[in-house]
Write a structure and sequence with these properties.
By secondary structure, the chain is of the alpha/beta class. It has a single domain, classed as Alpha-Beta Barrel (TIM Barrel). The chain contains 11 helices and 9 strands. It has an 8-stranded parallel β-barrel with strand order 1-2-4-5-6-7-8-9, surrounded by 5 helices. α6 runs parallel beside α7, α8 packs across α9 and α9 packs across α10. The protein is globular, with a radius of gyration of 24 Å.
C-alpha cells in the first residue's frame, strides 16, 4: 500500500480512537440497561482497606499483626483490580436462519445464550441476507424471497438475544457473492458498494445489531476494490461500530513444508501488506481456515491440516503485530458434514485446535492478537463436537 496516500500515523490514531469510542458505546449501552459499569472501568463492590487501631501497651506484637493484615489487604485489593481487567468471552459462532428467520420463545433464546456462555462464546455472526445479481437483498439462498419478508423475525431475534445476553457482540452477517454463484466480480460497481453500505447501516441503526460481519467471496491479494468497500462501510458506520470481515486463509503458502490444497494454485496467499491494510479498516478479521481439499488418501493427513492451520495462526498474527492498532484475529474452525474440498475426517475440532495451539506457540508474543476461535457453524455442530470444544479449547 502507498504510504504517501494513506499515512500510517493517521490510521493508527483512528484505530485508537475507534477503540476508545467503542468502549464508550459499551458503557452507554450498559447504563441504558441499568447495569453496573463494565468490570474494566471499576472493581465491583466498595472494597476499602481495613482500619487498624494499635493500642499503646504491648505495641510490638500488634504492630507485627497489623503489618501482616495490611499486606494481606493490599494483596487482596491488587488481586481484585487485576482480575477486573477480564474481558468478555472471546469465542464466536455463525448462527443461521434457524434463529434469525424463525420465531422463538424467550426460553428458547435463553437456552441458546446459556449454551454459548458455557462455551465462552461472546460473539455471534447472525445470517441476515445476501446481495443478488440485481443488487436486491434476498432471504435464504435457495429461495426467491426478499429480506423484507423476514425482517420482522430478524428484528425480533436481535431484541430477544440482546435482552438475554447484553454483554455479547451481535453481528449482522451480510454475504456479498463476488465471482461466485454465477455472479461476476462486481466490487468496482458503485451501485454494489452503495447497496452494501446502506444495508449495513440499516442493520445497525434500525434493526439493532452491534456491528456487521462482511462475508465477501471472493477477493484476492491486492484487490483495491475490496479495500474501497471497507472504507465506505467504515465511513458510514463510524469508528464506534465494530466491523468484522470474513477472509480466506493463506491457501497454498510457497514456503510451506507441508501439503497444501491440491486444487489451489501454488502461492495463493495474502501479502503481509494486504492483511495490514484490512486490519487498519476493520475491528476483527475472521480467517475461514477450512475447505483445504486435503483428504485421508494421504498418510497422516490430519497432522498436515494441523500444520496448515498453525501456519494461518502464525502468519496472520505476525502480520498485524507490526501495526500499532487494536485488531482481533479470530480463527474459524469447521464442524460441518463432508462436502467439496472438506473432509471432516481431516478437518475437525480436534485437528483444528491442535493446529491453533501449535500456531499460538510459534507466534510467541504476537499470539496476543489471536482473539479466539469461531465455530462454523451452529446448525452443524453436534453434541460430540461441543464436548470436544469444551475439553480441548474452553477447558484450557
Amino acid at each position: 500500500m502507498d504510504n504517501q496516500e494513506h499515512p500510517q500515523p493517521k490510521r493508527r490514531g483512528r484505530a485508537r480512537e475507534r477503540v476508545r469510542r467503542r468502549k464508550e458505546r459499551a458503557m452507554r449501552r450498559a447504563q441504558a440497561r441499568g447495569q453496573r459499569a463494565p468490570r474494566q472501568i471499576r472493581p465491583s463492590g466498595q472494597f476499602k482497606l481495613p482500619r487498624i487501631t494499635i493500642p499503646q501497651s504491648g505495641r510490638l506484637p500488634f504492630l507485627v499483626i497489623g503489618a501482616i493484615l495490611l499486606v494481606i489487604a493490599i494483596v487482596f485489593l491488587l488481586g481484585r483490580l487485576r482480575n477486573d481487567e477480564a474481558v468478555g468471552d472471546p469465542n464466536a459462532i455463525w448462527l443461521g436462519t434457524e434463529w434469525s428467520y424463525e420465531t422463538h420463545t424467550d426460553d428458547e433464546i435463553l437456552k441458546l445464550v446459556q449454551q454459548l456462555q458455557e462455551h465462552r462464546i461472546g460473539s455471534a455472526y447472525v445470517w441476515v441476507s445476501w446481495l443478488k445479481s440485481d443488487n436486491e437483498w434476498a432471504g435464504i439462498r435457495a429461495q426467491t424471497n426478499t429480506f423484507t419478508e423476514v425482517e420482522p423475525q430478524v428484528r425480533a431475534f436481535v431484541q430477544q438475544f440482546k435482552a438475554a445476553y447484553p454483554e455479547s457482540t451481535l453481528y449482522a452477517w451480510i454475504s456479498v457473492p463476488n465471482g461466485q454463484l454465477g455472479i461476476p466480480e462486481r466490487l468496482d460497481d458503485d451501485a454494489v458498494k452503495n447497496a452494501v453500505v446502506s444495508f449495513a447501516a440499516r442493520m445497525v441503526d434500525e434493526i439493532g445489531f452491534d456491528g456487521v460481519h462482511l462475508n465477501v467471496e471472493t477477493f484476492w491479494d491486492g484487490d483495491e476494490t475490496y479495500l474501497e468497500l471497507l472504507r465506505a462501510v467504515r465511513a458510514r458506520l463510524g469508528i464506534a461500530t465494530p466491523i468484522s470481515v470474513a477472509m480466506f486463509p493463506d491457501w497454498s503458502p510457497p514456503d510451506a513444508d507441508f501439503p497444501v490444497p491440491p486444487r489451489i494454485t501454488p502461492g495463493t496467499v495474502y501479502s503481509k501488506e494486504y492483511k495490514q491494510s484490512i486490519a487498519l479498516l476493520a475491528d476483527e478479521i475472521v480467517v475461514m481456515a477450512y475447505n483445504t481439499d486435503l483428504t485421508t488418501e494421504n498418510n497422516n493427513i490430519a497432522a498436515h491440516y494441523s500444520q496448515w492451520m498453525a501456519y494461518q495462526v502464525q502468519s496472520f498474527a505476525e502480520a498485524v503485530a507490526e501495526l500499532d492498532t487494536e485488531i482481533r484475529i479470530v480463527i474459524g474452525i469447521p464442524t460441518y458434514d463432508a462436502e467439496l474440498a472438506h473432509d471432516p475426517l481431516v478437518e475437525n475440532i480436534a485437528s483444528a485446535i491442535e493446529g491453533i495451539k501449535l500456531g499460538l506457540s510459534r507466534a510467541g508474543s504476537n499470539a496476543t492478537y489471536i482473539g479466539g476461535v469461531a465455530i462454523y457453524a451452529y446448525w452443524e455442530t453436534d453434541e460430540t463436537e461441543w464436548e470436544q470444544f469444551r475439553s480441548l479449547w474452553v477447558g484450557e
